[in-house]
Design a protein that fits this description.
14 helices; two-stranded parallel sheet; about 280 residues; single chain; alpha/beta
Length: about 280
């Protein structure tokens, strides 16, 4: 991922080179050549997604500077909140990358401590999914982790509980039950072990008030106070991602066109499930 931007833009290439110097390994080679097994680990995937997203933004800025300057509000899903904050001027590229690298390593360590994962449940609403989590938990950690769009909810938890929940979801009418290729139960209390390390990383850098609103994953609202932003980023690793609510907040401001910046087109698909009439464009096809 990110190869086209790297090859077409000196600015994007410079971001990858700066990232490699900060991280101590060749990020571009990892993104372009793999191995996929290494790239898929949280320790490496989070810096990779952060840099490829900002590289895509750099290319968009080169091609359509007026469009980028007109952006009025932004958000990012989970890790994506960090490039959104960089775009809004809350932190610079290097500081953001250092935080993301520590976040990825800390979350990987927390995931390694307990066999866990995430499962996407399609076709059921939140009360139904929460009931399934309650019925399948049996004393284990199991909770709603991502509220993505109507009928698309991700749950996180310990492996055995996820297996029970997957069976119950199918029995109770889910259209699909899809295990996700992730290292652990992100956005649940099983990530509590990552909190101290992430807080330390965030407290080591200077944050600035955003120049445009950035909608938080935790409460689906924008915040201007840097102390509050820092605290919300710490809470984010253990809190469910309120993505649908975040997007509805953005649409409530009068936005009629949205851009997905970075690899893939998943977020555009989610937005279309929320508002089919919305114009959704992206830097990746």
């Amino acid at each position: 991922m990110g190869r086209a931007d790297f090859d077409s833009s000196l600015v994007a290439k410079d971001l990858f080179q700066k990232a490699s110097q900060i991280l101590g390994y060749d990020l571009a080679n990892l993104c372009f050549e793999g191995p996929a097994q290494k790239l898929d680990t949280t320790s490496f995937s989070q810096p990779a997604l952060y840099v490829t997203s900002l590289a895509a933004l750099a290319v968009l800025r080169e091609k359509q500077p007026d469009l980028v300057e007109k952006v009025s509000i932004t958000a990012g899903l989970s890790l994506g909140e960090y490039p959104a904050l960089v775009f809004a001027g809350v932190m610079d590229f290097a500081d953001g990358l250092r935080i993301v690298a520590e976040r990825g390593a800390a979350m990987q360590a927390a995931a390694d401590a307990v066999p866990s994962g995430m499962v996407s449940i399609l076709g059921l609403d939140r009360p139904q999914v929460e009931t399934i989590c309650h019925d399948a938990a049996a004393g284990s950690v199991l909770a709603v982790a991502n509220l993505l769009c109507p009928g698309n909810i991700v749950i996180s938890g310990e492996k055995a509980a996820l297996a029970r929940a997957s069976e119950l979801a199918a029995e109770r009418g889910a259209m699909k039950v899809i295990p996700l290729a992730v290292a652990g139960a992100f956005h649940t209390e099983l990530m509590q072990g990552a909190v101290t390390r992430l807080r330390g990383a965030l407290e080591s850098v200077t944050l600035r008030p955003p120049r445009i609103p950035v909608v938080s994953n935790v409460d689906a609202l924008p915040h201007s106070d840097v102390v509050e932003i820092r605290n919300l980023l710490v809470r984010q690793v253990c809190s469910p991602v309120l993505w649908e609510n975040s997007q509805r907040y953005i649409l409530g401001t009068g936005v009629t066109t949205c851009w997905e910046v970075g690899p893939g087109r998943v977020l555009r698909g989610l937005l279309k499930r929320i508002d089919r009439k919305l114009e959704c464009l992206g830097t990746s096809e």
